[in-house]
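Task 17 of the worksheet. Students: predict the tertiary structure of the chain below and write it out as structure tokens. Keep your answer in the requested format; marks are given for formatting as well as content.
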Amino acid sequence: MKKTGIILLVVALILALTNPDKDDFKDFVTQNIQKEIVKKGKNDQVSQIFKPLADGLAQLGGSLSSAFAHRENYYLFSIFTLGPENEPDAPRYLGIGTRFFRLN
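Model answer:
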């Protein structure tokens, strides 16, 4: 029984230490925007020419998402909402252990 308690305590400590913040969420959104840009224009020469512009737009999108994201901190994990918090259709993400998962 003592082992189980110690294991749970260690897991809780690890989750608390790796609970993502708004900067982590901004990086997540920026990377996802960049992946979508690459996926949409993988073999297109025009997309290769404008790749630096697309990277800049991805950075801007990440910064904007950080400005408009609301974080609910539950210490072991966080819930991020893009847009108004009370908007039922606003995109929500679970941030746990440095990872993000779309909830809706």
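Marker's comment: The beta strands are 69-73, 78-82, 92-96, 99-102. Residues 2-102 form one domain.
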